[in-house]
Amino acid sequence: MARFQFNFAFIAFLITAITLTTNPRVLSSDSESDSFSIIDFDSNILFHQDYSPPSPPPPPPHPPSASCTDDLGGIGSIDTACQIVTDVNLTRDVYIEGKGDFYIHPGVRFHCPNFGCSITINISGNFNLSVNSSILTGAFELVANNASFFNGSVVNTTGLAGDPPPQTSGTPQGLEGAGGGHGGRGACCLVDKEKLPEDVWGGDAYSWSSLQEPCSYGSKGGSTSKEVDYGGGGGGRVKMTVKEYLVLDGAVLADGGNGGVKGGGGSGGSIHLKAYKMTGGGRISACGGNGFAGGGGGRVSVDIFSRHDDPQIFVHGGNSLGCPKNAGGAGTLYDAVARSLTVSNHNMSTDTDTLLLEFPYQPLWTNVYVRNHGRATVPLFWSRVQVQGQISLLCSGVLSFGLAHYASSEFELLAEELLMSDSVIKVYGALRMSVKMFLMWNSQMLIDGGEDATVGTSLLEASNLVVLKESSVIHSNANLGVHGQGLLNLSGPGNWIEAQRLVLSLFYSIHVAPGSVLRGPVENATSDAITPRLHCQLEECPSELLHPPEDCNVNSSLSFTLQICRVEDITVEGLIEGSVVHFHRARTIYVPSSGTISASGMGCTGGVGRGNVLSNGVGSGAGHGGKGGSACYNDSCIGGGVSYGNAELPCELGSGSGEEMSAGSTAGGGIIVMGSLEHPLSSLSVEGSVRADGESFKGITRDQLVVMNGTGGGPGGGSGGTILLFLHTLDLGGYAVLSSVGGYGSPKGGGGGGGGRVHFHWSDIPTGDVYQPIARVNGSIHIWGGLGRDEGHAGENGTVSGKACPKGLYGIFCEECPAGTYKNVTGSDRALCRPCPADDIPHRAAYVTVRGGIAETPCPYKCVSDRFHMPHCYTALEELIYTFGGPWLFGLLLLGLLILLALVLSVARMKFVGVDELPGPAPTQHGSQIDHSFPFLESLNEVLETNRAEESQSHVHRMYFMGRNTFSEPWHLPHTPPEQIKEIVYEGAFNTFVDEINGIAAYQWWEGAIYSILSVLAYPLAWSWQQWRRRIKLQRLREFVRSEYDHACLRSCRSRALYEGLKVAATSDLMLVYLDFFLGGDEKRTDIPARLHQRFPMSILFGGDGSYMAPFSIQSDNILTSLMSQMVPPTTWYRMAAGLNAQLRLVRRGRLRVTFRPVLRWLETHANPALRIHGIHVDLAWFQASTSGHCQYGLLVYAVEEESERIFIEGIDGVKQVEEESRGVNNTHSENPSGHWREEMLVSQAHRSSHGGIIVTNSLRMLKEKRDLFYLISFIVHNAKPVGHQDLVGLVISMLLLGDFSLVLLTLLQLYSISLVDVFLVLFILPLGILMPFPAGINALFSHGPRRSAGLARIYALWNVTSLINVVVAFICGYIHYNSQSPSSKKFPFQPWNISMDESEWWIFPAGLVACKILQSQLVNWHIANLEIQDRSLYSNDFELFWQS
């Protein structure tokens, strides 16, 4: 700044001399308008220096101090304590100095009401201005240790100012009634249409240099009369220096005086407060006075280190009664501790400025606030506004730089932050701004560069953040550069940045939100704007478009009108518009669906390809990428503009349809360049539009018709411009548009403009294995010509081109050549992709594309499905089969391997289980324990709990439980005790016992639920679960009877004491359970227990239910054997039981009518003849029918000695059905071998009974039996007769088991070649059912003991038959796959001797599985029979051979 001081003084002197010579009104005191104006007196504007005079000489020494009592009428002494208790009216200045305290009592007035009167108090003690007391004076100065201004107290210097400093213009001249100036200019209500509102003011501002310690009086307001001075007085001055504690609950006033409706308001005075600590919410005011025109605000400076409350501080201008919207200018508020300056006009609208002159550099101010309609201006040339912190403009604040009529200065603004909210910054000239953060909210920055291009460039730098919100605007009619290192965010509608030449650079990211605009040049620019030059006559490309400079400076010599340079990421949701738009050294550009980058209609009006005009004014279209359309009118035509430029690297402006200066002409499209040859764009993603369209004819005004000589024609359409993209990757969304189309012609024959040019210049196109698609194009690229009107012709289409593609790639976007073609040369033409040689490939193969395209032959191929494997496109199964020589050889090898493994498995089984020698038969002595040397079926007669032999001596009765022992029908006892035990039990206690034991026998709901779920998913597991729960239930019953029950139902005291007399037992299959009753030994009756012949007829129930897993069997425990030994030898009874069990094995549930016939026949031919010798006869009978229809089967045993007897059929509840009949039976069975007496009499009676009946041959047809799903399964798995050859059967089962598992694996492999879903379906419907037979079979074959082996073999059989469901699923999957194929690929599914393992043989492995499983089932049936019956003579038809074995 120092180098301009001489220039200022010299220029001011020359202008002053010229003005005084040419404008005599300046010297006249009676001029009509004496208000200060920039038009009338320019030198004052150009020389806006501080109006304060040079520093005065040191003040004279203070006069002697006034006395407390003599001069002030107080009490006490100033050196101790002076108390003012009465009003004091002074007429002159007073100086008070002492070492004591100074108190002014409540309600006391301490006044000196003269203009400029001064009261100075300098004490060492405390100062108190009590409640409702006041000090009135022109100047008040206080120095004290502590000071207190209580509620209602006031220090008032309003309108009592002395003379303002000399050589200042704070008091206005003339008779306009303008306000006085001080901190802010005074208002002036003069209206002059030739001047701007801010060019007219009253008194000027002064004392800028002392605003930190203000000490000037305010100025007087102007008057509207020569005779009477109506102007309000200026505000006085107040200075307080308090060393410690200042309490301010009162008011300190230095306001300007009011001028009324005929005078201007005086300006506010000065207030300077300095203290260490301050409290209180009092009022501090140095406002301008009200008047015809309001006075300017004063100056307030607060130097308080610690403020605990916020007092009300006002320095606004006064109200203008003559122009209410133009109050006086705001004064200044300076906070010395924060070093901040505030200009606030208290929301009073004004056109009057507050001058901001030179800012201090050492130390820098921290913050500057312009708010609440405050208007601040920096009028000096080449000024610098620099603060350490924040510059904030809020609530209609205005900050101006320079003068509107001299827009040739350059200004600097330096701060940490620039915050604007509902405010305006005006710059006349150029602005160099440097901040870290620039935030705008509904604000404007208006830069008027004038016509001087040398100073017309403004630079705005915000290193961290630039945000525009709520319709904020940065506007420049010259060049503008916006630089930063962080984010530039135009956050919503109405946010604009526009300039004639706009450069945005160095930001990390730029975000243009929907409704926001970046524009260059300015739309509808005025004549004083600096207009960029367009190179419309150049046919070659300007070098800076292809090789732009590395720096990002604003350069007027370059072609760009809008450049975004060195920005990492750019998001355009709004509009970016310019004539030549350039994105240089950017990384990514993203244009969402709402975004547009446009150069449409921003090109040349004339240009190389401009259109031609017919004599009647109708114009043809302009040309560029294509020729312009011809204009035709009344059969007279003229050709359109020529095509020009380079399609391979275009960078030309579109041409217009007429002369550049003609009215109503249309312009061509501009240029949009993204990237450069050296620095291509990394990624361009477009969902919106990128346009460089030619302008269409929109019609012309009446005035333009006159300019066109009244012709009725109009121009043709402008040609499309250029979109030149240097980039790596492109993503063009579904609704995206890249457009460079020609404009429409005018009516009456105007031609359409030619299309423009779009070029994609790819950089570093990857090839080979590193190739990645460089473009995803789903949107539209438009380059068509514009339509002609009426007889006019349409323009030709433009061009779309791309950089030449390397080998293997073709097209504008360098895509891979189609499958079956290859390209071994460089270029982009589709014809360069030649067909691959027609060599033979597998019939399941097809040519494929590879990454980077195919550059050489042979062309690669792949199988048509992933289930086929290269190179022959076999399935995994076929690959396995053909590896071993084909289907037949593979089958033979597999068969041999299975036989070998089966032999190894059989040998291992013999080694593992061969030590278990099967027991042979041996006689059993009468009354001994069960002899386990009997065959297994004889040992089936065992129960889980053996009884001592002597227990049979005290046995009274056996009571069978009813029910099938299932989850839906558990075991239960009837409540009524049978006749046989009524003498040994208490009936009431017995009923209680039955309730308890029935409750224990019942199952929980969740047990049945689990069983139901397992029955659906895996029935073998359901069977195992049921047996486990049955075993637990039986154990619980036995524990209850043995240990928990107190035997209270028995009459025997000994039984109750020893917990004896009751015992629960069950058959080994857990299907039949019974309760035995014994004597306690202390009974006195000798007829109990009854002998065997007294118990006849006696029922013996079968165990089992006739199913595969639990066949019928007769139980023969020690008690029963001991009882029967009273009439039948044990060996005979055991043999009879073994033979009967062998016959009962063959009985099948669901086919009882058929399978019971051999049992009846065997009883008549083998059992009864042998038993009749001992006086016993047995019949097959049914017992205990339940409500569900279930009944139990067994034997009815009775004696045959008597001719006539009563037949007793015992029910489970102990009630006997008694029928009298004459049987006429002889002792020899030959007299009535057929038993017709039982058929004719007992059968009918038995069926009428609800408790049972005898079954004979003729009554079988009357049996009622329910059939379910297991009836069908019984044809596959059922109990059979033994066949012997156990080792051979085991070998074949081993072979089939291995074959089954092999077929399962092959089936799964075949399904995997179809679909993985099919594999899951087969495996999990039913879950893993297809795999379980193999481990179940191995477990059964390698188990010890016949009984365990037989049980596990039955489980294995269940898994085997269950897995048929999985095989059915495999059939369905294969069938669906085969029928979903094309008819040409189908073959007849069965071709003997020609198995190729193609899709037509899908059925082979599932069919093999079905056959294998059926064979396994039959062999397992024989295997179980061999294990359970090792004495094959049990099935002998020879009576003698059966009983002799």
Describe the structure.
By secondary structure, the protein is of the alpha/beta class. Among the domains are: 532-803, no CATH class; 804-864, no CATH class; 899-907 and 1282-1428. The protein contains 24 helices and 74 strands. The chain starts with a helix and ends with a helix. The model is unreliable at 1-53, 700-711, 915-948, 1202-1250 and 1387-1395 (pLDDT under 50).
Which terms would index this structure?
single chain; 1445 residues; alpha/beta; twelve-stranded parallel barrel; seven-stranded parallel sheet; 24 helices; 74 strands
Gyration radius, rounded: 60 Å
Structural class: alpha/beta
Q: Which percent range fits the helix content?
A: 10-25%
Report the mean per-residue pLDDT as an integer.
83
Strand order of the largest sheet: 32-34-37-40-43-48-51-49-44-41-38-35
Largest sheet: 12 strands, parallel, barrel
Broad shape = elongated
Number of strands: 74
Unreliable residue runs: 1-53, 700-711, 915-948, 1202-1250, 1387-1395
**N/C terminus separation:** 140 Å
Number of helices: 24
**Beta fraction of the residues?**
15-25%
Short description:
The protein has 1445 residues and is of the alpha/beta class. 22% of the residues lie in helices and 24% in strands.
